[in-house]
Amino acid sequence: MRRHGLADSPDAVGLNGHACWGFDDVADLQTAAAAFLAEGAGLGQRLMFVGGPDAEAMVRETNPMRSLVQDGTLDIAPFDAIYPGGRRMANADQLAMYAGATDQALADGFTGLRVLAEVTDLASPDGAWQGQVGWESFADRYMATRPLAALCCFDRRRLPAEAMAGLACAHPVADRRLQHLAPFRVYSQPDALALAGEVDAFSSTQLSDLLELTIPDSEGEVVLDLEGLDFIDHSGVRAVAEHERRMRERGVTLTLRGESGLFRRLSDLLGAET
Length: 274
Known about the structure:
- The protein is an alpha/beta fold.
- The chain folds into two domains: 5-178, Rossmann fold (3-Layer(aba) Sandwich), CATH 3.40.50.300; 192-273, Transcription Regulator spoIIAA.
- It contains eleven helices and twelve strands.
- Helix 9 (204-212) links the parallel strand 9 (192-199) and strand 10 (220-225).
- The longest helix has 18 residues, at 26-43.
- The radius of gyration is 19 Å and the shape is globular.
């Protein structure tokens, strides 16, 4: 099973971990980056950095990242080479690039690829964060079954609270300091989509929006694992029921797994109301 939950440090996310981190200054980013890279080095993954010029300067100029760059352990990928023109490519094309890099890392004898990404610039233009949330959810499906790990770092000073909330909810692991913004997480497991954390009336609309991003393009079946839910109220149950309806209309069957007795009772009550 993939690592998930709120974390004080991104130092234990595993070979295919995917974490959202909000930083307040360079020192904050440096601390998270060093912990994330150290775990990857210990696991035998190839280490790669991609980010804007300020973050790249931090990586090149401060230890332990500077030492990793100098000895060739950490590769710095030019931002425009990964994101031409400073923008994401279409999701499938962007994923193909990362998948190819992961395959190459394995071919070169590494256990996988670990990417330290400072990508505030992709999310900071007005409304751009919504597309970034979609990309994070899309990429996470691939990461669930491949040895690709990523720490996605965002400057909290440059993004509105709703952006940080959406981004954090789309990662299995999130900075604990974002808990008030992201009480739940929707992420991929190898055999299911998982919903973990807490959902109430204040976050149910956000849940509905994020679930919409996970609907596959083709007919089939999706399993939604609810075992990681600590709490859900009637508005959250209604959001899941609405998601099931949307999927059914597109020829996709949603199967629930690990739902609690409370979830089933609320679902029965809501069914009786309609």
